[in-house]
Amino acid sequence: MITLRDVQEALAVIWSEIEKGNADAAEIKKILSQDGQTQEYGRIRRHGRPLPDDTDDIIKRLKTENLIIETNGKIDFTESGRKRASRIIRLHRLAERLLHDVLEIHGGAMHLSACEFEHIMSDDVEESVCTLLGHPRLCPHGSPIPAGKCCKLQTSEARPIITTLDRLGAGDEARISYIYTKDHALLHKLLSLGLAPGAVVKIHQKSPSLVLNIGATTLALEEEVGKMIFARR
Ligand SMILES: [Zn+2]
Ligand SMILES: [Zn+2]
Ligand SMILES: [Zn+2]
Fold first, then answer.
1. How far away, in angstroms, is 156 Cα from ligand 1 center?
2. Whole-angstrom Cα Rg for the chain
3. Which of 53, 60, 137, 196 is the most exposed place for a label (fewest CB within 10 A)?
4. Above pLDDT 70, what percent of the chain?
5. Which residues make up the environment of ion ligand 1, defined by Cβ < 5 Å?
6. Does 25 have pLDDT greater than 80?
7. pLDDT band at 148 (very low <50, low <70, confident <90, very high)
8. Is residue 150 within 8 Å of 127, Cβ to Cβ?
9. pLDDT by residue (tens digit) across 40-77?
10. What distance, in Å, lies between the first and last C-alpha atoms of the chain?
11. How many angstroms separate the alpha carbon of residue 101 from the centre of ligand 2?
């Protein structure tokens, strides 16, 4: 029997494959047939019962529920399928961030727990977790987290544990969690300056430019750059 959980897992797997540019139906079916124990780091795989022979049934079920379509050997989401898959992925990656940044659980344990969270997190919990984490853009593997309502509004009064450097005050100390930028040259420059995950920074001054200390080094950053650096207070 195919459970709701199986459907959710399959949607998550298909999302992460399509995101990587792999929409090939045969390959997606192969990945769906492998059990969670064989998952590569950072790749979402189906968990639960490792039953390779029910893969066709799952695909069939996703099609009858009008969640995916298959054309010329390629799989794509329908509108409702994309909506549901993006929510599961969002919960999975938010849970990863929570486990990784706040609870400091890494690797396989992080993945397995995230995979549980994605099935049980309610809307309220989702918003609280997202706010606590400062509305993160990327999971610990560097994959994008689909934005939720809270990310678009950012109205909550809760004080996030994870925040961008531009939101810290003078005198505040924080440990860098990750840097969100698509500009590789900039990323390398920041890393070479010591602004790497794990580094502890202290805000020295906020205007006219953001000045911070890392150890004995003092750096001045543009505000725009401060917005890309997520750190834990
Ligand atoms: Zn799962
Ligand atoms: Zn991830
Ligand atoms: Zn949010």
1. 28
2. 20
3. 53
4. 89
5. 115
6. yes
7. very high
8. yes
9. 434 455 555 545 567 788 899 999 999 999 999 999 99
10. 46
11. 12
* Structural domain containing residue 3: 1-160
* The total number of structural domains that make up the chain: 2
Shared-domain flag, residues 169 and 153: no
Query: What is the distance in A from the centroid of ligand 3 to the CA of 192?
Result: 30
Residue where one domain finishes, among candidates 134, 160, 186: 160
Cis peptide before 144 (omega within 30 of 0): no
Token pair 């010329």 in the structure block, residue: 72
Q: What element of type H or E holds 202? A: strand 200-205
Domain boundary among 117, 145, 160: 160
d(CA 214, ligand 3 centre) in Å: 29
Instruction: List the shell of residues around ion ligand 2, using CB closer than 5 Å.
Output: 96, 139, 141
Most distant pair of Cα atoms in the chain: their distance = 63
CA–centroid distance, residue 140 to ligand 2 (Å): 5
Ligand nearest, relative to CA of residue 40: 2
- Are 174 and 131 in a shared domain? no
CATH number of the domain residue 223 falls in: 2.30.30.90
- The alpha carbon of 163 and the centre of ligand 2 are apart by a number of angstroms equal to 19
pLDDT above 90 coverage of the chain, percent: 44
User: Could you give the ipTM of this predicted complex?
Assistant: 0.86
Q: What is the average pLDDT across 78-88?
A: 95
Distance 148 CA to ligand 3 centre (A): 5
Give the whole-angstrom CA distance, residue 99 versus residue 121: 14
Closest ligand relative to 100 C-alpha: 2
Q: How far apart are CA 102 and CA 217, in angstroms?
A: 27
Q: What is the pLDDT of residue 89?
A: 94
